[in-house]
Amino acid sequence: MTQAKIKYLLEDNSPHKVGSNVTIQGWVRTLRDQKKFAFIELNDGTSLANIQVIADSSLNNYLEIVEKVGTGAALKITGDLVESPGKGQSVELKAQNIEVVGLCDPSFPLQKKRHSLEFLRSIAHLRPRTNALGAVARIRNTLFMSSHRFFQERDFLSVQTPIITASDCEGAGEMFRVTTLKEGEKDASKDFFGKPAYLTVSGQLNAEAYALAFSNVYTFGPTFRAENSNTSRHLAEFWMLEPEMAFANLEDICKLSEDYLRYVLKDLLKNNFKDLELFDKFIAKGLIAKLEHVASNPFEILNYTDAITILEKSNKKFDYPVKWGIDLQSEHERYITEEHLKKPAIVINYPKDIKAFYMRNNDDDKTCAAMDVLCPGIGEIIGGAQREERHDVLVDKIKAMNLDPKTYQWYLDLRKYGGAPHAGFGLGFERLIQYATGMENIRDTIPFPRAPRQADF
Ligand code: 4AD
Ligand code: MG
Question: Is the pLDDT of residue 171 over 80?
Fold first, then answer.
């Protein structure tokens, strides 16, 4: 008897040959009783496809199986692998023994084949057992592992930056407070950390300290934003992948971002083709062709100023009027990538007044060395910059944004003690998954989404 995972049974070059005896464990997707025998579709999460099991009525617990076992039940099945006469599957399992591990109450909500993604969000503890969310989870896993591999292969040190912080990295005041003060107590000096503390919005500032010791680093962890935006692209808790390179400039991170995206998408096409086919078929027609195109063609690099000119010349009526100095809104980003370029773009050199304090001022005194990677259908998936490495310029920038230089003392030290030009970016991991799957709503790309008024499960 060999324990087998269903994905290996179904592979063309399966290590389990026809005729071999195997044991599988998983959950029933469907059970059809044909009187003389029953067909059971079993799934163990290792692949999108189920294996078909034939349960003959001669099995000693046959009656229990057809009467009590339904969709959702957990089974352990031993049997012989046989060639399948049916279309769409190469092998099936002829059961010799079926152990009912866990029955499934008839109230199990996943009885029918298709449910709306919205409904599935209300049963986030059960939705991983559907085809769509199962495929998302496997795609997420592949992207997670190939992200690490990409940076490890390039000698980037993986660094774990803190989740609780006292500094607002983005200076945008969108932080969740962390406190042990009781209701009515206001004195922050009596709080756990002796001052106000928050959940981090980005690991960047800490990653910079490590980049200035290890040259190239990356941090990949959860980040938190208390922005009250109930959109299909925002989460209150999301994962961010943030590489940081010392002795590097804007051009270097543009190249890194493009190499990274192409690498992980290629890997995904190689490892999760069947999962991607599901999305291509039911969620986003043409998805695979799009990913293949992106994985093998250069991105467009565009100056912010040129992006504005393109928008002005478009003769389109935007909700947010276009003029030099505005922050690009999602409608602008989408016009540029979906209608004008029809591919991802890296927009660089944004006006300094609309970007974060740490971005390096350009010599024109109007723009800064920022970069955003914009993708069709999503908009921004990466935001980054060359960092301001000049101590005094940085102090002025902190003050100009009404932030307190005292809270950034340690960060300023990095410019005093062997400071070096450095640059990095942050990739919104769920936005990448959205892009890779074509999922409309970011809440379907993370197992248990956190958003305004949504912290169940
Ligand atoms: O552009 P952002 O705000 O950049 C930073 O936080 C930098 N400190 C990163 C760095 O340079 N190390 O965020 C980076 C990315 C965005 O491009 C977007 O993809 C994602 O994080 N993001 C969100 N994803 C989901 N929900 C939200 N509320 C997000 N806010 C940003
Ligand atoms: Mg940004």
Answer: no
CA of 243 to the centre of ligand 2 (A): 15
Q: How many Å lie between the centroid of ligand 2 and the Cα of residue 383?
A: 4
**Residue whose tokens read 């997420």:** 140
Amino acid at 234: H
Which one of 175, 202, 372, 387 would you pick to mutate in the ligand 1 pocket, going by the greatest count of ligand atoms within 8 A of its CB? 202
Q: Torsions phi, psi of 231, nearest 5?
A: -110, 175
CB 56 within 8 A of CB 37: yes
The answer to whether 283 and 419 have CB atoms below 8 angstroms apart is: no
Atom of ligand 1 nearest to the CA of 243: 12
Question: Given phi > 0 = left and psi -120 to 50 = alpha, else beta, which region is 456?
Answer: beta
Quick check: CB of 203 below 6 Å from ligand 1? no
Q: Which residues contact 141 (CB under 8 A, 6 or more apart)?
A: none
Alpha carbon of residue 117 to chain centroid = 17
Residue 89: per-residue pLDDT: 78
Cα 392 to Cα 415: distance, rounded to the nearest angstrom: 9
How many residues belong to the chain?
A: 457
Q: What is the per-residue DSSP string for 358-423?
A: TBPBPTTSSBBSEEEEEETTTEEEEEEEEB---HHHHHHHHHHTT--GGGGHHHHHHHHSS---EE
Residue whose CA is at the smallest distance from ligand 1 atom 25: 234
Coil/strand/helix, residue 344: coil
Distance of CA 3 to the CA centre of its chain: 32
Type and span of the H or E element at 80: strand 74-83
Examine the pLDDT at 192 and tell me if it is beyond 90. Answer: yes
The closest ligand to the CA of 168 turns out to be: 1
Q: Is 238 in the pocket of ligand 1 (CB under 6 A)?
A: yes
Q: Are strands 216-224 and 237-246 parallel, antiparallel or unpaired?
A: antiparallel
Q: Which of 114-123, 134-143, 171-180, 211-220 bottoms out in mean pLDDT, i.e. has the lowest?
A: 171-180
**Sign of the torsion formed by the C-alpha atoms of 55, 58, 60 and 66:** positive
The structure's pTM equals 0.96
